[in-house]
Amino acid sequence: MEKFQNKALEVASNALYWTDQAIRDFTSLESLPEPLDCKPGCHYCCYNLPMVTPPEALLIGYHVEQNFTDHKKKKIAARIKNILERIDGISPYEVAMMRHELPCIFLEDGMCIVYQVRPVVCRTCTSTSAEHCKMIFESRNHRARLRCYQHIREIFQTVHSGLVDRCREMGCQADALTLAEAIRDYFKHSMPVEAWLQDEIVFNIPI
After folding, report:
1. pTM of model > 0.85
2. φ, ψ dihedrals at 47, nearest 5°
3. Domain definitions of the chain by residue range
4. With 60 as the cut, is the pLDDT of residue 152 above it?
């Protein structure tokens, strides 16, 4: 994971590093009954609206700003617009039930184009059966649960809660929001990272 001098980006980078290390430590246990079955191109969990904390959003936005062409940024902006128009005015339950129609804004050709800086929720969305994930996705049975380890879910809860607490300790905006909304707001602001550190409202958190 890249090292950052900026405090906001460092907070997110350290959290992602800790998440990866915790997952590696857990999955290296000899007593683990089944290995994780996640692999490149297996993207069923990428049809969703992942929730991110402000530091994660700032890190992803910074990565896009620094590494993507203007053409690619426009494509992402169009995806954001399309998704937010689709979910405007409908309940969280309805959104969850139509998630097969909502590919992540960073999903291209079955691959994540921000994989290096993907958020904690994506890193901990793991399964011991890719075939089961495929079945859930194709049947649109979104009430079904993935075959995953509870301990990895707990890693997510620990890191996510830790990030929120860290934001509050810093006196900065702390509430999570969807990745699509977060990246929209990042590029609406001229200096989002610096503004967030100064406790300005960067992200338009839905009430």
Report:
1. yes
2. -95, 90
3. 16-23+35-197
4. yes
